[in-house]
Amino acid sequence: MNIDPTLGCPCNGRFLVPAFTYDCPPAGETTFDLKSQVYRRRYDRCTMCGHWFARHDLDLSGLYERDYVEATYGGLAGMRQKFEAIMALPSEKSDNRGRVERVRAFAGDRGVDESKGPRLLDVGAGLGVFPAAMQTKGWHATALEPDARTLAHLRTVVGLETLNLPLLQLEAAGIAPFDLITFNKVLEHVAYPVELLMAAKALLLQDGLMYVEVPDVAAAAEGPGREEFFIEHLHVFSPVSLAMMSATAGYRLIRMERLREPSGKFTLSAFLVACSS
Ligand SMILES: [Zn+2]
Question: Which helix (H) or strand (E) holds 146?
Fold first, then answer.
């Protein structure tokens, strides 16, 4: 697998050392149909910036298109159940509740007026719990999602405006600029996260805000079985690598937090603005 080895790290990938190695799926990992491929993968860790890179030759190309909804939720009915269960969680048990509070507080500090229906683009919306909650607070939420069945869920169950274009094509398609773009647990799934962040910059209003959540390498202290290191994650970030990626993509980092979420997830969250603003 060819993954950008640097994200802006000055070591240019020269100081990678092997970290966790897997020859079978850790408990709890979603089971994907690997066809005849042998399950074998590992992470390499950068000794300079602390970033972890997935290393394997497994072909996961069909993962999100074909198998993801079925394997993860057991189809559309399962998605609806999961969505409703998460929306009904009490605040102290809901990762999403904390996220909504963080984002709204930050946007409020930066002068965003919720009574004016500010526009949110949620990239990789998944079940849609975040844009759904933001919509109830006055935001006009648009969900970007590649999977056709997930799009159907977002439209019919959640009631969101949806887009199924690749992010890189949105600017050319004349999609109007957004007050806020969010990547919630998305960038770790793509080989080239810098490219996506860069493309998103063109979709922000002049003073637009970017919010990013990624898995935190701090989880490694609890061993290789943690979900932060499941097969879908091509990257696991350190505070330094998240800061470097943001700078490389042309953003100024305004705030970063190291979270231990109600679900137990180790997460880094960051607020960014485009360098020109
Ligand atoms: Zn590095």
Answer: none
Q: What is the CATH number of the domain that holds 201?
A: 3.40.50.150
Whether 3 is covered by a domain: the verdict is no
Say what the alpha-carbon torsion angle 27, 30, 35, 41 is, to the nearest 10 degrees.
-60
Instruction: State the residue range of the domain holding 45.
Output: 16-274
Q: What is the pTM of this model?
A: 0.92
Centre of ligand 1 to C-alpha 41, Å, is: 20
Q: Using the mean position of ligand 1's atoms as its centre, give its distance from the Cα of residue 50 in Å.
A: 6
What's the structural domain count of the chain? Answer: 1
**Taking ligand 1, which is a single-atom ion, which protein residues have CB atoms under 5 Å away?**
9, 11, 46, 48-49
CA of 253 to the centre of ligand 1 (A): 18
CA distance 73 to 177: 33
Does the residue 7 lie in any domain? Answer: no
Task: Give residue-wise pLDDT tens across range 165-214.
Answer: 888 888 777 786 999 999 999 999 988 999 999 999 999 999 999 999 99
- Strand-pair category, 140-144 with 204-215: unpaired
CB 246 within 8 A of CB 235: no
Residue 4 lies in a domain: no
Q: Give pLDDT tens digits for 44-95.
A: 999 999 999 999 888 876 666 556 677 777 788 888 998 899 888 888 888 9
